[in-house]
Amino acid sequence: MGLDRVVQSFLRYVVFSALCFALNPLAKAQATAPDVSGSYACTQAKVENKVMACSAAPLILKNDGRFELRGWEGSYLVDGQWVTLTDSLTKARAKIVPGHKIVLRYYGKHGWAEMTYERRVVDLGKTSLS
Question: 17 exposed, middle or buried (CB, 10 Å; 0-12, 13-18, 19+)?
């Protein structure tokens, strides 16, 4: 009689486990976000559809999820091929592009502006961007 109970308990466990597995949706493996931390120099600016050399301050993305840009400080989050920069009042999205670049597009006092930031050479050995 004792062996019967053990077998029944085992079968219940197997059936319960199979049901949980069958009813639980399979979780897709999430790709880890690329490590974009580092210092990026502004290499190109596009204002009013005119491309020009850029001398803006660097964009610094820290390992702890914080950023600095011309006195603007806040946090950043990588989502796919986008980097979202936020502080308590402002939010901006920048696109990660091949070649260790981040392109920030925003509306400024002269209309739409697009700033291209490129990772500095000393940081290139650390990691690669998409």
Answer: exposed
